[in-house]
Design goal:
Shape of chain A: rod-shaped
Strand order of the largest sheet of chain A: 2-3-4-5-1-6
Order of helices and strands of chain A: HHHHHEEEEEHEHHH
CATH class of one domain in chain A: Mainly Beta
GO molecular function (chain A): DNA-binding transcription factor activity; sequence-specific DNA binding
Helix content of chain B: over 70%
Protein name (chain A): WRKY53
Distance between the termini of chain B: 59 Å
Oligomer: heterodimer
InterPro entries (chain A): WRKY_dom, WRKY_dom_sf, WRKY_plant
Keywords (chain A): Coiled coil, DNA-binding, Nucleus, Transcription, Transcription regulation
Number of helices of chain B: 1
Pfam family, one (chain A): WRKY
Distance between the termini of chain A: 44 Å
Chain lengths: ~325, ~40
Amino acid sequence: MDCSSWINTSLDLNINPHRVHEEVPKMEVESKLFSLGMTKFSVKEESTDELEEELKRVTAENKKLVEMLSVVCENYNTLRSHLMEYMKRNPEKELSPSSKKRKSESSNNNNSNLMGINNGNSESSSTDEEESCKKPREETIKAKISRVYVRTEASDTGLIVKDGYQWRKYGQKVTRDNPCPRAYFKCSFAPSCPVKKKVQRSVDDQSVLVATYEGEHNHPQPSRMEATSGSGRGMSQGSSVPCSASLISSAPTVVTLDLTNSKSSKGSKNTEPRKDSPKVPQNLVEQMATSLTTDPNFRAALVAAISGRLMHKN
Amino acid sequence: KEESTDELEEELKRVTAENKKLVEMLSVVCENYNTLRSHLM
């Protein structure tokens, strides 16, 4: 990204409350004007005019500041929603529950506080942010689909593809386009795991099993033992994990993994391709969360500003 | 007139203090934004 878009934190603003008095010493002006024959009343009038002018200037500055703050908060929230989207894409690298809780609490506080600050100026920015946070969540619900092809022995008629996960068969049917039955499995390792698997022999080659995975495991891999098909050949555990592909789009993503090539399956049990999801160091994630959520200065400034605002409004 | 001037001064002080707080907040938010951005990059 272009660094020119970085926000310049140096604010060239004059916030000196006593500027009027410094620029125009009251007594000095009065004495000078008195010596010139002017009355005290006209001095007061002039002073009042200057005060009004200064007040107008400071009020305009105030308005400008609120607008700037609104824009910056909006940008911040957008960026935060991007971060959340990223977290959704990589659930296995998500924050720990405690820090996640802190983050959500803090973000709620921030949102409500910012709403208070921007009251009457840019309320729409907060609602936009909320919507922008919702969209990625909806997108991630879309199922991830991956397909794995496994070669089996000709004599093997089973519909079992061992991939290291525990599956419960819940159905079987024959489709019109394929005479071989299709078996349906559900991940049984965790009750809440939504992953389903369909296994069917290929129409073109009956010795090839096609396993289609839908969804994403919400638990770690139960075992690390090398998985094989019913015949003892085929795929490795890592390559069969359907969720390691971290592609998300509005349409369901299909990841196809062909493990039927005999050369690769025979000679490279240890060198089979393993899909790596992007690595984000845990400490970096923690650091990000901490900087976002537990900044006492940020909270203090927000609270002070809001309480000040409310008091003045009252 | 005296009263009016005093009120104006009071109001000026109030708005100026509010400005100061806003500047502080803006500074903090900008800092957080830039930190977050640098992490994401």
